[in-house]
Write a structure and sequence with these properties.
Helix content: 40-55%
Distance between the termini: 40 Å
Order of helices and strands: EEHHH
Strand content: 15-25%
Largest sheet: 2 strands, antiparallel
Oligomer: single chain
CATH architecture: 3-Layer(aba) Sandwich
Number of strands: 2
CATH class: Alpha Beta
Radius of gyration: 15 Å
Number of domains: 1
CATH topology: name from scop
CATH superfamily: secretion proteins EscU
Structural class: alpha+beta
Amino acid sequence: MEEKFIDKSIALQYDEYAPKVIASAAGFLAEKMIEIAKEKGIPVYKDADLAEILYKFKSGDSIPESLFNAVSVVMAYCYRINSDFRQKLKNSGLFDN
């Protein structure tokens, strides 16, 4: 099955107050952004509808409270992925942490 073309991508960051958009891209640049994220081990969560909404915000914009629930699902996914990865590293015995 061929992967669907990625129309838009958004990079989010959570600061001490609220999640915010730190980058966004469309078309070829969206695909490149996701490719780089995967290369760097950054979790990628696919939700075309949410990406379409968040694309309207500028880099540095905080996410409005009305979207906290939707964005919290993304943040929880990324936290879980990172936590699972840390646990695998710990269980591997390669690191003391």
